[in-house]
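Lecture notes, unit on protein representations.

Consider one protein chain, 247 amino acids long.
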Amino acid sequence: MPAVDEALRLALMRQGDKPPDTARASDKKRYSERISHTVAVTLGAEFHRRGLEGARPVGADPGHADPTGTERRMAGGIGAKKVDVTWATEESGLLLGISIKTINFRDSKTGNFQKNLTNRRGDMLFEAVTLHRRFPYSVLGGLFFLDAAAAHDATGRRRSTFLNAHARLRLFTGRNDPGGRDEQYESLYIVLLEASAANARIEITPVGQPEAPVSLETAIETWLHLTAIRNPDFYEYEDGCLRRVLG
């Protein structure tokens, strides 16, 4: 297992057991915030290791995360937006941004994970439009976490939430041209998460490819490689790291 995948797995375990679906809304909200922050801090640390000085968040222990004060607020084309993980420079502005969204709990009425899927998608698309209008050359990535049980909540009348998420996000990934659609991400991934104090398992799939799991390391390398392509006068991608172009 790649080192960053293992680091995230261990950090998620340190968040403890997930509250039951019948827990208070405040407890479920707090758990979801901890998961999002843990992922963000793990990514931020990995970006720093790969040469992205100034990436945020950084400095906090991803296993004992305080979910406050680490997002960077970016001025976008239609307003300011908090972004979970960012790399920005004074000369270029936002170069790389990662959005993290989660659905961790079943809906009490339907028993599935579908209820907030449309709202989460809307949040991600608004974020992409806001940032791409101000920074059209920025690389935006997304990690959409679903509880692992979301792959098995299908009924005779509907597909699983996992498959529905792939279908509903498929139009909004694959932005390979800075002149492309603002609402598209450069690459989006859906992550099935099963985590407790005893163990944690993540399965990452590119949106539109539910049967083609990849590692978190692969997703990171995809984002960094494209960032270098977008900024050839300043950076090159070599040996898994972004390096400043000399001369």
